Amino acid sequence: MNAVLRVSLGNFLFFAIFALMMINTKDQNDRRDAWHHGGWIAKIAVWAVLIVLMFCVPNIVITIYAIAEILSKFGSGLFLLVQVMMLLDFTNNWNDSWVEKDEQKWEIALLVVTVVCYISTFTFSGLLFMWFNPSGHDCGLNVFFIVMTLILAFAFAIVALHPQVNGSVMPASVISVYCTYLCYTSLSSEPDDYECNGLHRHSKQVSLSALILGMLTTVLSVVYSAVRAGSSTTFLSPPSSPRSGTKNPLLSDDNVEAGKDDSKESELRPVSYSYTFFHLIFALASMYSAMLLTGWTSAASESSELMDVGWTTVWVRICTEWVTASLYIWTLVAPLLFPDRDFS
Fold first, then answer.
1. Furthest C-alpha separation in the chain
2. Domain ranges of the chain
3. Which of 143, 203, 261, 328 could be disulfide-bonded to 192 (CB atoms 3.0-4.6 Å)?
4. Which pLDDT value is given to residue 167?
């Protein structure tokens, strides 16, 4: 487990350094823009050196490991929130792109996706009752988690279909499936000796499958953030950066005419997204990956024999489900509560 944390810390330092270096980069003429997009041989060399250095530090850094684990849990929680934001952004863009086509086949496709998602949600919830509420045992906590997930699924649909809410049932169905998945991963992470964990006989296999799904979700989130950062001028764009094609109010027409004689290097070419936030996503992903591999527990914990198993993991994931639900409902009701704000 120490090796996992060493590699994670090396990755985190690499991306954190770049995030700090890219602060306030607003113009593509800035030399740091070339560092961000190029210099791959030098970047790989720096990354390799940092990883090696993490394995060469003296034993006294065990104390630092403890601090690093606490920071990793905090950073991992932030990355879970980023995953939720990515999911909400993806589902809304998916729904809007199909609605804008304004064709019957796309409307049917939206209906099919919605129906499949809700069938999956309720079917999966039924399986959760079978697996994590065995007869003859008092499993009130597990029942509460599953019932709450079903209540949230109904709440998503009711709020999204409210006439005063500018929502759609398709994103609500996708979020319902994701919340059900989080409920499953939470329950499957219960200790193998817990009587209400019906999958305890296959705890190692369940732990491995949950780990693979978690890592896959992490990779997809990072890749999606990178794609969105590279193709969008709004999602990750710095608030103060000017948009291309926007006239600078400080420049008069005379100054504009005079500026035509300047070289191309002096022309304003604003960046399309925040380089600092881009690297910060990867830094948080490094923390989150380490927590997945160590089961959100201390490296010296006896319960870390099984990856991704333990009550800490259970509560982290169930809280992530509730935060996901809260954020989704907030995106629906916020325009009603604050009509003067622009939430587009």
1. 85
2. 2-237+278-337
3. 203
4. 78
With H, G, I as helix, E, B as strand and everything else as coil, classify residue 117. Answer: helix
Share of the chain above pLDDT 90, in %: 15
Where is 13: in which H helix or E strand?
A: helix 2-21
88 alpha carbon, distance to own chain's centre: 10
Residue 178: CA atoms inside 13 Å, Cβ hemisphere, count? 25
Backbone Cα Rg of the chain = 24
The answer to whether the beta carbons of residues 329 and 155 sit under 8 Å apart is: yes
Smallest Cα–Cα separation from 72: which of 302, 298, 335? 298
Which DSSP string do the residues of 44-109 spell out, in sequence order?
HHHHHHHHHHHHHS-GGGHHHHHHHHHHHHHHHHHHHHHHHHHHHHHHHHHHHHHHHH--HHHHHH
**Cα 40 from Cα 46, distance rounded (Å):** 10
Q: What are phi and psi of 27, to 5 degrees?
A: -120, 135
Q: Calculate ∠ Cα 80-78-25, nearest 5°.
A: 120
pLDDT on residue 176: 93
Write the burial class of residue 225 (CB in 10 Å: 0-12 exposed, 13-18 middle, 19+ buried): buried
On the CB side of 262, how many CA atoms lie within 13 Å of its CA? Answer: 10
Amino acid at 323: V
The Cα–Cα gap between 314 and 280 comes to 26
Which of the two residues, 207 and 199, has the higher pLDDT score? 199
**Tokens representing residue 282 in the block:** 């990867």
pTM higher than 0.85:
no
Q: What is the pLDDT of residues 132-174, one digit of tens each?
A: 888 877 889 999 999 999 999 999 999 998 888 887 888 999 9
87 pLDDT exceeds 60?
A: yes
Q: How far apart are the first and last CA of the chain?
A: 44
**118 three-state secondary structure:** helix
Q: What integer best gives the mean pLDDT of the chain?
A: 74
